[in-house]
Amino acid sequence: MEGVAARSHRLTRLLQVSTDVAGDLDVSSVAQHIAETVPDVTDFQVASVTLRDGDQCRRIAAHGIDDRRIGMTTDAAQWDELVAERFRVGAMSYLIDVNETPQSRSWGQLPDRHEVPEAAESTENTWTQDHAMLLVLRDSHGRILGYLSVDAPQSGQLPDGDDVNALELLGHQAQAVLLNARLYQLAERQRTASETLRDVLEVVSASLELDEVLQRCCEAARAHSVGDRASIFLIEDGLLVGRMSLGVDDDALWERFRALDPIPLADAPAVSAALASDAPVVIEDLASSQLGERERDLFARFEARSAALYPLIASGQQVGVLAVDAFRRHARFPVDERGLIHQIARQAAMAIHQARLHADARDHAARVTELHELAKAMTESFDFNAIFERVSRAVRERTHSRTVTVFEVGDDEVRMLRSDLGDVAQHQLELPFRSFPRRGMIADLLDRIAAAGGLTVAVEDWPALREIVLPQTRSLLTAGHLPDGGMRVLLVAGSDDPERFGNSDVAFMRELTQLTALALRNARLYEEARYAAERDSLTGLKNRRVFWQELDWHLADLTDPIALAIIDVDDYKIVNDAHGHAVGDRVLQLVTDRIARSARHTDTLYRIGGDEFALVMPGSDRSAAKGVVERAAAAVQRSRTEIPLPTLSVGISAAPADGRHGDALFRAADAALYLAKRAGKGRTEVADSSPPTWARPGDR
Fold this sequence. Notes:
Layout: H1 4-21, H2 27-41, E1 44-53, E2 56-63, E3 73-75, H3 76-80, E4 93-97, E5 131-138, E6 144-153, H4 161-205, H5 210-223, E7 229-236, E8 239-246, H6 250-258, E9 263-264, H7 269-277, E10 281-283, H8 293-301, E11 306-314, E12 317-326, H9 335-380, H10 384-399, E13 403-409, E14 413-420, E15 435-437, H11 440-452, E16 454-458, E17 475-481, E18 489-495, H12 503-534, H13 544-556, E19 562-569, H14 572-579, H15 581-598, E20 604-607, E21 612-618, H16 622-637, E22 648-655, H17 662-678, E23 684-686
Parallel strand pairs: 22-23
Antiparallel strand pairs: 1-2, 1-6, 2-3, 4-5, 5-6, 7-8, 7-12, 8-9, 10-11, 11-12, 13-14, 13-18, 14-15, 16-17, 17-18, 19-21, 19-22, 20-21
Helix pairs in contact: 1-2, 1-4, 2-4, 4-5, 4-9, 5-9, 9-10, 9-12, 10-12, 14-15, 15-16
């Protein structure tokens, strides 16, 4: 039985402990003081203090054992096995027989096994190496703070009631001072976390440039984590796309990181779990965890051992994931750290969301400006070829595509209108996409494009495309214009990069296609209007106004002789009066056809009056021109038709012999025509029967 003096010493020492640690708010210091006090107030010579942190326990102080074992971590589940009711010997103390615990084989270091003094005779009260004793330290809510473990009693005996009471008094003191220190530590961590979050918010909000925001977020995560690297994957079209990574050997890491292929979100169950729960997912051993194959390959590529995945969610929208991994060792990612990095991830998600909105707005503004400039250019020209060059240049500059093609989509066929092949050999005339039927898989794809307005298309997903694209093409950016409910114009950009095109490219292409379709429509309307203004509606020949313009153009740079024939249909009024205007129209059409067939492809026939035609023959003298018109007149007479076959009277002139200007040349030919009429019609006369004086420059 303990003496009065010994009890008094214990109480004095316990009071002194209270005084010594009352002002100490450092958890490790307080715990060490408690451990060192155990031999002063109890029979035990060895003591250690272990604190609980989530599902892990960490030794933070010890007395009487190797200091190198301070910091050792163990699973909390092992300690839970020890605090069984059958081992309880006091309100908070447990005397354990190791042989009776499921963890006996791995008891190892829970606290520590020590040699004990040999008793003269072993009794049932003798302390052995199979004994252990610990006190459970709890907070005011009954939650376990940690454990005070003791070992190696100096007497070699199991503790008696006085020892248990003394231990529990010390345990209560330990609870109080450790709780105060933990609360202070927690408050300090919260203050530090608040300051950190404030700093992070200031840093990531200081820029609206997405790449800079991503870099700042990774820097913040690395600075406050036990992990070695921090990486950000953003969700784009259902894919996880690696956008930023910082860690050891950043330059080499970045090169490897940006070479990663996007991962479908459906193939990333760990990431999906973090996003679905809006909570961190910690994987302490990546080698043995339940990961998707693509996730496992990703971590294996960077030799990661442990990882923590933090969801990036802003305004209810899943932005991506912040991944912190460790490759030097397995990391447990402490609970406090997880909370802090999770808060950093929330701030990062908002900053990334804002940067994306800013980038989208800036991209939209640039797109609108670019489209406005294109629209202006299109109003300045009705030449579709020139407009297509502007369209192709705009697509190339924005998307870095290899080829740009515009198609006209018919009910049964898709026909190429223009194509810019870029660096593909322009002599490659047998293009596979010059025209192709609209059926089967191609029809299905066109329907999808029509429904969406525009799509990015992976060639490998549409086998039918392989027959109608250039061999090296791996992806297409498509957009269609849908007037009156049906797609009529299709704009397509091709690339040999399967991941070349993104959502903003589709939006730009969709809007550009509308302008392209409008430009094509305007060009065709202009051509129709110009044709109507320049052509005779009955014969399709160019009219008198165009005749004078083109005759002057031919004579403006006179380097070769040029002949002009004025042709009149004899007695055309009689045909009209006798047979009607319908027959008269057919006569004119017959004459037009026979003259056009007799002329060369370089000659141009015009209708310059009711029954009067002009034939301009570059490179011909009067003799050659006479042969052409006489063949035409004979062809008219040989025609097999029920309508009257008229004769033709023709007057021919030639430049420069009969004049160097259009009006002079015309007067000479018209005078010759008058002679033909006076001579009895159905004849051809030339302006002058003398030989022409034409000579090429240098022949003189």
